[in-house]
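Exercise 4. Each item below gives a protein and its sequence. For each, produce the structure-token representation.

Item: Xylan alpha-1,2-glucuronidase (Kribbella aluminosa).
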Amino acid sequence: EDGYDLWLRYRLVANPDDLARYRTAFTHIVVSGNHAVLRSAGAELSRGLSALLGRSVPVTNQLGKGAVVVGVGDLAAESFTIKRRADRVEITGGDERGALYGAFRFLQHLQRHRPLSGLDIADRPASPLRMLNHWDNLNGSIERGYAGKSIFAWDELPGLRERYVDYARTIASVGVNNTVVNNVNASADFLRSERLTGLAALAGVLRQWGLRLWLSANYAAPITLTADRPSPVTVADPFDPGVQKWWQDKIDEIYRLIPDFGGFLVKANSEGQPGPLDYGRTHADGANMLADRLAPYGGRLVWRSFVHGGFSDWAQYEYNVFHPLDGQFHENAVVQTKNGPIDFQVREPVNPLFGGLPRTNQLVELEITQEYTGHSTQLCYLVPEWKTILGFPTYQGPGTGPTVADIVTGTAYQQHNVGMAGVVNLGDDRNWTGYQLGAANTHGFARLAWNPRLSADEIVTEWIELTFGLDQQVGSVLKAIMLQSWETYESYTSPLGMGYLTYPLGAHFRPDPNSTHNLSHYTTSEGTGFDRTAVFPQLYADHWRDVYASPDNCPDELLLFMHWVPYTHRLKSGKTVIQHIYDSHFAGYERVLEFRRAWGRLAGRVDQARYADIAATFDAHVVEAERWRDTIVSYFYGFSRILSTGAEWLQVEYPNRGLLIGGRANDLPLDITNAFRTSQT
Ligand code: BDP
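Answer:
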């Protein structure tokens, strides 16, 4: 067991009663229809059932007793039912994709040893677009990626690797239906004719699993890709006829090669990327020019709203740029908005563009890859965070709604080109995500895109059972750890909503509060935080404006995002801000130690290699958490010179390290306490 199978782990059913029942009930598979996706469903059922039941369960064309029949019926697109008849099971999709999703759900049911009587299931996806965004570059690296290199060997295409099939199976098994295979900081090279031929082969693999391939497009591609021609295109102005013709030809070419091409994802006029603003046009002008050319083919154009103004306040910049464009994007143009107004920090308010663009199709962009949330060394299960985002009531409408989930499922404004995009953490590491528990986020993202109403508890339980089996102790220990891990990460990195305390270059996971000074916080000897009261709260509905604008109403977890406060400001808990910062970092670190201890008690209950891998991850996690704690606590001590104001934690200075660290008073070695004790009051 090395983790490669992820949650598609089909192991012989251990309980003899279940095994006997399943063996009688399922003897063969019948695929009713001849579509490639249905054949994939049949193949997966055969593979899964054969492994689960420990005997061959072939695809045949004999109905009769013991058949698992998969086909298409009169249901909504992408939906499915699983029904147990007297002598067979019927898995019916509203279309081939729905049938495939039903087949995977059926296998998951058996992987979890669920009773046959429970095999009466009807389900359908909540969001139409359930997308992955790869940040994979042409040279095989992954932007901020932590799971090895890209799974896609671009230069080998149209040669195909077996792993592409496993990739497609994995993401289709949880209902993903679209994938953008290259980085938003896009190389124009992806649109070269030679590349497209190769990509068509990849699209062919994905298609068999109900997945549409997309590309990130560089807006200046017409310039780059015609530079060596006798009469090159010299601008990328969306209103320029030469530019329009170039894109038209390119899009025609793509659809000749990839008839179900999903469309383009574009990052424009953001962080150095070219875009329509370079020519005095708007983001909507830029998006619509491409959208109009994709529309006849059924393609879509996804335009990112992630733009920020250098060192001016990021939080309001994006809203100021995009809010005035509401209603200007064409029907197949979709604006993709990061969950928060900054950049995937461990805690941010919900981006005010949710509810701020009621006449625009919108995708929420979540970061599955743990760029700012612990790399592949620190467990941070993000589903609880995503639940708070999706459940956020914007108050931009009747009652408290709509929520973000209402918007991205299309129910808020009756839209169809909406959904969820996840910056995905899959790489070519053997276990796909760089550490054994990272795939929980991949799975969780997809499950929420399918159904945002599922609870974090349900989703994590499902993932654990599919990935580690049904041992109850493993289940309960791991679940408790995972469900606490996000808030734990927050507590030892950046409590109270400060965020962005990471070293800004390279991997964004080590602490460096100095370099983000004045960008995410204004820390002085008197206090800290970021005073955003002048503008930012007003981007929200009145309800949230009033909550955020006042330091007394603002929830503690966002206090320093919205306000600059003196260290002695009292939180709702009664603690001072400085004391909370100290306590939270120490307590968070302690919790990581507890995670490691709890995992240690599972020795012998989890297969050896994965057990040891995870134990090693917790060792690394402890080291990183300690580094965060010491760096941030020292930083604030350095400015405030305020020592512990309560008895809970004792702070001691290590003069040689220039660091302030500590622990519970009784736990500290005597010599340290005696030599360096500075205050306990
Ligand atoms: C930031 C990443 C950067 C991405 C950018 C984006 O650090 O590498 O290119 O977001 O989303 O979080 O475009």
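Check: The radius of gyration is 26 Å.
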